Amino acid sequence: DLDECATSPCKDHQYCLNTDGSFSCKACDASCVGCTGEGSDKCKACASGYMKEEEKCTDIDECNLPEKVCEENQDCVNTSGSYKCVCSEGFEDKDGTCVQT
């Protein structure tokens, strides 16, 4: 079996999996920028919104950062690699601002 992966035939966001007589390109984990294999522990670098923790790229909880990421009358909701701000209970979105209902 020729190891086609030795020539790095895959794209930057993929890793090469050598198979008998061939190879396939597999997508890197969403937490990675470039990777050497499957999973968040095989990242070359962590994607935006992720940080290296115990050799893995893990999600940063922006909602628990010391500085507030959302505006007044908004609640922070952590998402994978990011966050979103939603109007707090008793408030509704009026043209991008949360106003009391």
What are the defining features of this structure?
101 residues, mainly beta, Hormone Receptor, Insulin-like Growth Factor Receptor 1, Chain A domain 2, two-stranded antiparallel sheet, 0% helix
Report what the structure shows:
There is one protein chain. The chain is built from no helices and ten strands. With 101 residues, the protein is an all-beta fold. The chain folds into two domains: 4-59, Hormone Receptor, Insulin-like Growth Factor Receptor 1, Chain A, domain 2 (Hormone Receptor, Insulin-like Growth Factor Receptor 1, Chain A domain 2, Ribbon); 62-93, no CATH class. It comes from Rhynochetos jubatus. GO terms for molecular function: calcium ion binding. This is CRE2A protein.
Write a compact overview of the structure shown.
0% of the residues lie in helices and 48% in strands. With 101 residues, it is mostly beta strands. The protein has 2 domains: 56 residues, Hormone Receptor, Insulin-like Growth Factor Receptor 1, Chain A domain 2, CATH 2.10.220; 32 residues, no CATH class.
Overall radius of gyration: 20 Å
Low-confidence stretches: none
Distance between the termini: 68 Å
Total number of domains: 2
| Count of separate DSSP helical elements | 0
Biggest pleated-sheet summary: 2 strands, antiparallel
Fraction of helical residues? under 10%
Biggest sheet: strand arrangement: 1-2
Indicate the CATH architecture of the largest domain: Ribbon
Pfam families: EGF_CA
GO molecular function: calcium ion binding
Domain EGF-like: 59-97
Keywords: Disulfide bond, EGF-like domain, Repeat, Signal
